[in-house]
Each structure stands twice: as C-alpha cells, then as structure tokens.
C-alpha cells in the first residue's frame, strides 16, 4: 500500500498554550483567538484568493503533541465521564492511527502583507499546531439538519463562572491589553475542562491562556477564578 507523505502548509499561533482546558470542540468559545501563518511556498496571496468570501473554514491539522504516544483501539470520551470505552473511530480522540484532527473556525480576516495570515475565531487549537490543509466551510453541504450526535449529546450543563474579588484588580489591568479576557476565561471554564471523574472542591486547577496562568476551583457547580498570574515570573499582573 502506498504511503502519502504530507507537509504542513501552516502553523497555528493560539491563545491556548497547553492542551488542558482547550475546548473539546470548535466554536464553543467564540472569543478564542488564533492565527494561521502559512509557510513557504504556500505563503502567497494567490493561495487564498477568494477565501475572503467565506465566513468559516475547515482546518485539517496534526495532533503534534500526542502523535508519539501512538493510537488506541478504544478510548474514554469525556462526554461519558471518562469511565466508558468506545472505539477510537467513534470519537474525535487524539490517539488515532493517523494523528489527524479537524476543526472549523470563523474566518475573522486575511492578511497578505509579508506572507499570508488567517485570523481565526472560535478555534480549539493548541499553539504550534501544524495545519495540513484549509477548506472553505459550505453551509448548504456541511451543516446537516437532524443529524444524530450519539453519546455526544450527553453531558452536564455549562458551569457558572465567577471571579474572586482579589482577581479583579489584575483582570482590570489585563483587559487593557486583552479586552476580551474575562469573556474568554468564562467561555472556557463554562465547558468544564476537568476530567469527567474529577469532583474535588478543594483541588485547584490551572490553565495557560496567552502568557497567563489562570488558577481556579470548582465549588458547588461553579468555577471560581482564584488568581491570574504571568507565566514567566509568576507575579500578579
């Protein structure tokens, strides 16, 4: 059987700096920003000519951080609480025979000065993700009415999100640089990024957004943001 060599056509620059807390599907966090930088020789304005007419794009990408771990015939989907196994091809798990993922994102803009950059919104992509292909989203063909979602319809209601009083001064300063930061944190935590089996009200979780370390706890069905610190010096910003 023939092999099909592939090369990345671009790299993702994303607000998500680590795998934990990335939304499990695209579009769940509309405030999540990413930029796709096309690589040579694909970084020509001609390669994206006409793409500006489309509101959304499909991205095929490589699960670069988990590829070395290989594939698994069965996995435990978060939607089933992490306790029930299903076949890998019945999931969108990263542990696949070919570590290929797909994501749809809103096309917020295209820049063609000094290369080609696609501005994306609502992306669920890790910083540094290699992109293998771009395809325009076609609403009349890609959105199938009355489609069945299987076990993916299961799951808890979104978490309520609050910010501790001691976080507000840092958040006020940071929103001068990142105006949508509060909204982004709220959208991410509302999806409850904890493992399905985790329910410890005393445990503190952390997630990396931009150059920030966001610390939070889940108490009585609410995610409470405890601190926001810079990842480099661990000092409040």
Structural notes for this entry:
With 237 residues, this protein is mainly beta. The chain folds into 2 domains: 10-142, YaeB-like (Elongation Factor Tu (Ef-tu), domain 3); 156-230, RelE-like (YaeB-like fold, 2-Layer Sandwich), CATH 3.30.2310.20. Helix content is 9%, strand content 30%. It contains 3 helices and 12 strands. The chain has a 6-stranded antiparallel beta barrel. The longest helix has 10 residues, at 181-190. 26% of the residues are buried.
Task: Give the key terms.
12 strands; 237 residues; 4-stranded mixed beta sheet; mainly beta; globular; YaeB-like fold
SSE map:
Layout: E1 10-14, E2 33-38, E3 56-62, E4 74-75, E5 86-87, E6 100-111, E7 117-121, E8 130-136, H1 139-142, E9 160-163, H2 168-174, H3 181-190, E10 205-209, E11 212-219, E12 222-230
Parallel strand pairs: 9-12
Antiparallel strand pairs: 1-2, 1-8, 2-7, 3-6, 3-8, 4-5, 6-7, 10-11, 11-12
CATH architecture field of the largest domain: Beta Barrel
- CATH homologous superfamily caption of the largest domain: YaeB-like
CATH class of the largest domain: Mainly Beta
Low-confidence stretches: none
Short description:
By secondary structure, the protein is mostly beta strands.
């Amino acid at each position: 059987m023939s092999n099909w060599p592939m090369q990345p056509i671009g790299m993702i620059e994303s607000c998500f700096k680590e795998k934990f807390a990335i939304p499990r599907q695209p579009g769940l966090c509309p405030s999540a920003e990413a930029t796709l930088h096309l690589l040579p020789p694909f970084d020509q304005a001609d390669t994206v000519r006409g793409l500006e007419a489309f509101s959304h794009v499909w991205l095929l990408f490589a699960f670069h951080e988990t590829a070395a771990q290989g594939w698994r015939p069965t996995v435990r989907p978060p939607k089933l609480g992490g306790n029930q196994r299903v076949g890998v091809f019945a999931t969108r798990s990263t542990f696949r025979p070919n570590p290929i993922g797909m994501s749809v994102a809103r096309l917020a803009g295209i820049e063609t000065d000094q290369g080609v950059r696609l501005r994306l919104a609502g992306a669920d992509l890790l910083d540094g993700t290699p992109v293998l292909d771009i395809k325009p989203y076609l609403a009349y063909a890609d959105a199938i009415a009355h489609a069945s979602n299987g076990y993916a319809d299961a799951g808890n209601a979104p978490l309520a999100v609050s910010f501790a009083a001691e976080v507000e001064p840092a958040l006020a300063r940071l929103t001068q640089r990142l105006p949508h930061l509060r909204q982004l944190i709220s959208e991410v935590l509302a999806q409850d990024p904890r493992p399905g089996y985790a329910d410890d009200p005393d445990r503190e979780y952390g997630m990396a957004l931009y150059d920030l370390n966001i610390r939070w706890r889940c108490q009585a069905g609410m995610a409470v943001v405890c601190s926001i610190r810079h990842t480099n010096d661990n000092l409040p910003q």
